[in-house]
């Protein structure tokens, strides 16, 4: 190689190296960004708020794709409609993956999966069973009548067909999932054109979605998701609270604890803590009643039951009011979930009051209130220990010689004028025997006999 060409070769090599070094950060910065949301609970108002916030953030921060990892037994129809509307109007492509292994897209999950631009399932997951079911697991016709059942079924079936058609999926299968509670495995759903791919992990979903075209309100847009940077988005405290309050067992316990706190405040006015805690629990319970279906009659039974238990502590009914109150609390707990509200579509296995709440909690409530009422009655029968009469029997010290003409004593942390039938020397221990207005009657306190006194 000529010596004159060596500088040019070195310059070219250095330039290429600098170019590659400058290009590497650019390529890293150009990697697609995916926002991941995990839905692993029932579909409630908190879930809807969470997904809507995720869509808004994906749009404002320029994410290339929104990935929803789904595992749900079903949920509230109104919340499901809010989610589907937000997904159909999303300016960012959305992929839904039903996973991991053992996950399901039941009831409301069917609509969310159908509304995705890219729908995927884990090989060991399932989808379907979107027939309208009431909170207690009964058919709508059993509780609300055949006419209402038909209206609910037709409305839900039309909803499913419209969502499936909007995404080019099998509308007939979607309708069968509503009318006949049809369910499918991942492979069956793929063959029926309900989903687009069977994928074992989110990365496989992103690899499949890359290059596909998503129909957005602004027009078709190719999806960029291969080798993407996945950024998770967690729920806020408010969203977690709304989801937590969707559990009917939590609501029932909050309501019972709240009424117990208020009752204890009535038993012992001025204690403050039980009243404040009870009011807080009742506030949370009433907030949760907007999330899940609650029977108003059951709430009245619970209030009446607690009221009767309170009455038992103030009126002598020989246990009749207390027993009636315990029965009312038990019936109110059993009927707490409103099974005649067709706007709620919950999976019966996931939304029932647990026997561990239905039976022990009312009994524990009755036991606590019974104990408190017993203590109240016992205290009323006991000796008065407050005020001037409560000083009788108290001991103190003579601050000066006390006789029939009077003298000063120190009793119960206070200075009193006192008289004594027999002279009491200054500094002696005295015992209060009577109270006459603001003057105490005292006597010399007998000194305890020493051990062994009187023995030879």
Structural account:
This protein has 456 residues and is α/β, with parallel strands linked by helices. The protein has three domains: 207 residues, 2-enoyl-CoA Hydratase, Chain A, domain 1; 137 residues, no CATH class; 57 residues, Nucleic acid-binding proteins (OB fold (Dihydrolipoamide Acetyltransferase, E2P)). Helices cover 46% and strands 18% of the residues. The protein is built from 16 helices and 18 strands. It has a six-stranded parallel sheet with strand order 9-6-4-2-1-12, sandwiched between helices. A hairpin with a 2-residue loop joins strand 17 and strand 18. The N and C termini lie far apart (132 Å). The relative contact order is 0.09. The C terminus is likely disordered.
Can you give me a brief rundown of this structure?
With 456 residues, this protein is α/β, with parallel strands linked by helices. The chain has helices at residues 6-29, 45-60, 77-88, 108-114, 140-144, 146-166, 171-179, 186-191, 202-209, 237-244, 248-267, 273-288, 296-314, 320-334, 355-358, 360-381, and strands at residues 33-39, 65-70, 75-76, 94-98, 104-106, 118-121, 126-128, 183-185, 197-198, 213-216, 219-222, 229-233, 344-345, 395-398, 407-411, 414-420, 429-436, 439-444. Helices cover 46% and strands 18% of the residues.
């Amino acid at each position: 190689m000529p010596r004159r060409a060596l500088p040019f070769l070195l310059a070219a090599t250095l330039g290429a190296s600098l170019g590659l070094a400058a290009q590497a950060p650019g390529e890293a910065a150009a990697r697609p960004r995916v926002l991941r949301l995990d839905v692993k609970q029932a579909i409630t108002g908190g879930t809807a708020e969470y997904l809507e916030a995720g869509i808004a953030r994906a749009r404002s921060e320029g994410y290339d794709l929104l990935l929803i990892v789904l595992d749900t037994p079903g949920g509230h129809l109104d919340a499901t409609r809010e989610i589907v509307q937000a997904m159909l109007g999303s300016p960012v492509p959305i992929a839904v993956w039903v996973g991991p292994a053992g996950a399901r897209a039941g009831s409301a999950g069917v609509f969310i999966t159908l509304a995705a631009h890219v729908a995927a399932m884990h090989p060991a997951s399932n989808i379907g069973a979107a027939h309208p079911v009431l909170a207690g697991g009964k058919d709508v016709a059993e509780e609300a009548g055949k006419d209402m059942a038909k209206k609910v079924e037709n409305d839900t079936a039309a909803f499913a067909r419209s969502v499936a058609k909007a995404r080019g999926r099998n509308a007939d299968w979607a309708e069968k999932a509503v009318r006949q509670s049809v369910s499918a495995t991942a492979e069956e759903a793929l063959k029926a054109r309900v989903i687009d791919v069977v994928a074992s992990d989110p990365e496989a979903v992103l690899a499949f979605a890359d290059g596909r075209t998503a129909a957005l309100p602004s027009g078709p847009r190719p999806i960029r998701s291969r080798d993407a940077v996945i950024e998770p988005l967690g729920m806020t405290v408010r969203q977690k609270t709304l989801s937590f309050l969707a559990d009917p067992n939590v609501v029932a316990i909050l309501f019972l604890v709240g009424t117990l706190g208020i009752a204890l405040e009535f038993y012992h006015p001025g204690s403050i803590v039980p009243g404040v805690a009870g009011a807080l629990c009742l506030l949370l319970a009433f907030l949760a009643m907007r999330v899940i279906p609650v029977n108003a009659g059951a709430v009245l039974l619970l209030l009446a039951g607690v009221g009767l238990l309170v009455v038992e502590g103030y009126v002598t009914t020989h246990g009749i009011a207390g027993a009636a109150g315990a029965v009312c609390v038990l019936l109110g707990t059993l009927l707490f979930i409103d099974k005649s509200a067709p706007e709620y579509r919950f999976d019966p296995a996931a939304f029932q009051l647990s026997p561990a709440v239905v039976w022990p909690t009312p009994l524990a409530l009755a036991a606590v209130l019974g104990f408190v009422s017993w203590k109240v009655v016992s205290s009323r029968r006991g000796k008065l220990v407050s005020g001037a009469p409560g000083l009788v029997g108290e001991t103190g010290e003579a601050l000066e010689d006390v006789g029939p003409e009077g003298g000063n004593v120190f009793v119960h942390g206070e200075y009193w004028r006192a008289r004594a039938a027999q002279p009491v020397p200054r500094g002696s221990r005295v015992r209060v025997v009577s109270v006459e207005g603001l003057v105490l009657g005292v006597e010399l306190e007998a000194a305890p006999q020493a051990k062994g006194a009187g023995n030879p």
